[in-house]
Amino acid sequence: MFPFDYRRPAALAEAIAAHGGGGDVRYLAGGQSLVPALKLGLAQPSVLLDIARLPELRRIRAEGPTLVVGAAVTHAAMAEAVVAIPALAMLAGGIGDLQVRNMGTPGGALANNDPACDHAAGVLGLGAVIRTDRREIAAADFFLGMFETALEPGELIVEIVYSLPRRAGYAKVRNPASGYPVVGVFVAETGDGVRVAVTGAGATAFRLPEFEAALAADFSPLALAGLEVSPDDLNRDLHASHDYRAHLIGVLAGRAVADARR
Ligand SMILES: Cc1cc2nc3c(=O)[nH]c(=O)nc-3n(C[C@H](O)[C@H](O)[C@H](O)COP(=O)(O)OP(=O)(O)OC[C@H]3O[C@@H](n4cnc5c(N)ncnc54)[C@H](O)[C@@H]3O)c2cc1C
After folding, report:
1. What is the pTM of this model?
2. Across the 262 residues of the chain, what is the mean pLDDT of every consecutive 10-residue run?
3. 150 CB under 6 A from ligand 1?
4. Residue 33 near ligand 1, beta carbon < 6 Å
5. Ligand 1 centre and the CA of 213: distance in Å?
6. Domains in the chain, CATH or no CATH each
7. How many C-alpha atoms does 170 have within 13 Å on its Cβ side?
8. What is the CA radius of gyration of the chain?
9. From the CB of 159, is ligand 1 less than 6 Å away?
């Protein structure tokens, strides 16, 4: 390890002012991705700003027809408290193991944008808005590529605003070692139509317009029969081939719809 300053600001405004936008300063949430990166020397900030206990980032509240989840709410707290969107609670409750869920946060997970991020499927599937200290970013505009997002240097995710769906479901095949989805599919029927979002299969989460059109006509697993996903741009690694991931997308989309219909 290399030397760095550790600071724990007492308030959100203090944290934002302390960051100042420089690349040498990093926010620390649960440390589930950042601490391993520090240990490996992949990140070498001179200052860590611990935002995990900031009360402004730890709230879950209703706001009109939306549910607002603070960026530093833990996955475990989401799994217990997000009763308005059961599929989202299930998604959070299926992340990693108990230790990861007790420390990891949706803000850290989205900012990190691992290609197998469960929350990426949730925000894309629900058409959520990522509210930062500077602006609101639609989920559709947030994920730019593998480990790459629309966040600017020093930009802090404050909360995530989820529109309440009519019904939604999530299904994933877990990597047996980490819990990360080999593939995960989130399906939501909303006031704006049906959304199908996939994680774990590509460089970043993506939607499936063909599946969405089929489910808009008939929100049933049977509506997906015969639909196929091209494996060409999908991930292939030691866990799964791109062909297998393409197959899983169809199977898991059907399971997510069945989950939503329960
Ligand atoms: C063993 C293991 C298993 C896991 N399994 C899964 C899984 O099944 N599914 C899954 O989706 N994830 C999984 N994860 C990832 C986990 O969900 C964490 O949420 C993720 O690693 C991010 O960690 P964190 O929230 O602690 O953020 P940190 O590690 O503290 O931060 C990660 C990055 O985000 C930045 N950041 C943090 N908060 C904010 C914010 N509010 N605004 C802007 N930038 C911010 C930090 O500066 C850093 O660059 C796993 C992790 C581990 C270690």
Report:
1. 0.97
2. 90 93 87 95 94 97 95 98 96 98 98 98 98 98 97 96 97 96 98 96 98 98 96 95 98 98 94
3. no
4. yes
5. 33
6. 168-261 (3.30.390.50)
7. 30
8. 18
9. no
